[in-house]
Amino acid sequence: MAAQNKLFQRLIWLVDTVYSAGHISREEIDRRWANSTYNDMHESQYGERNFHRHRETISELFGIDIVCNRYTKEYSIGSLGAAESKGVRAWLVNTFAIQNMVNLAGDMKDRILFEQIPEGSRYLSAIVSAMKENRKLQVTYQGFDRPEPHTFLLAPYCLKVFKQRWYMIGKPDDHPEEKHPRVYALDRVKAIEASEVAFKLPKSFDAEHFFDGCFGVDRSKHNVERVLIKTGAATANFIRTLPIHSSQVELERTEEYSLFSYRVSPTYDFIQELRKHGPYLEVLEPADLRDLFRQDTRYLSEMYEKM
User: Fold this and answer.
1) What is 225-306's CATH number, 3.40.50.300, 3.30.70.250, 3.40.309.10, 3.40.50.1100?
2) Tens of pLDDT along 55-87?
3) CATH number of 121-202
4) Tell me: the pLDDT tens digits for 212-252?
5) For residue 15, how many other CB atoms are within 10 A of its CB?
6) Residues in contact with 24: Cβ distance below 8 Å, sequence separation at least 6, in sequence order
7) CATH topology of domain 2-111
8) What strands, in cross-sheet order, belong to the sheet with 165-172?
9) Coil, strand, or helix at residue 254?
10) pTM of the predicted model, to two decimals?
11) Which of 57, 97, 202, 274 sits most deeply, having the most CB atoms within 10 A of its CB?
């Protein structure tokens, strides 16, 4: 196990070194490895055979390719497509970079603070294995609307992370009448066990399409429509650098305000995301959503006047 941990740390180091450099030569990799805290054997270089073997391992395990430019002889992370740049490969690269940073921090760890992440990630390995083998899982789950946990078989279709929470999308056996799969928060899972019951993933199921127009994992509404908002310049800076939704487009930008449009289903979660900006965000379209925010303003005004 110790040897496996060391290998994994070495793989993390290699991915992060190439990723953070952008383009890097073999000589520079050797130089950085000679000075790395991971290099507990005090090797003077990474080693040609190890380097290429670890490139293959990284590609096989994580789908991340370390490619060589045949003209400059420099190495870089293989180009991520538009979909992949928002997906698992980019997530892995960024995770490796953070892990490498924390490991290198040493006695500085008490000065690097992270958000508390809800439990549930410990089930990821079992879920991914079941997805790969097309085997159903026996899941013990307690939703917020249930006083006690209940256990059922579930065919796992896909996984999605949203706001630091993991969600599993799958078809449960206890609701055979439903046409669409359900969404389960992993922090509400009490137990997961592998089963021998096989299932077939429907050819028509596409994870991206399943959540098309959704904000996060909320599929309570299916009407995708255009939402137009107006914000002050200061708020626009935050929204511009951390988009509210993947469909965000900035239509107009001035010194005083910006206009952003979205192609989204205006679910409760999406509305709450807009509400958190308070008076610094104005909903322009659609009319019924603008009316809802107008009612919010009237209600808050009356509430504070009573106080």
Assistant:
1) 3.30.70.250
2) 998 888 777 889 999 999 999 988 665 445 556
3) 2.30.30
4) 889 988 887 768 999 999 999 999 999 999 999 989 999 99
5) 24
6) 17, 18, 74, 75, 76
7) Arc Repressor Mutant, subunit A (1.10.10)
8) 182-185, 165-172, 150-162, 135-141, 189-198
9) coil
10) 0.68
11) 274
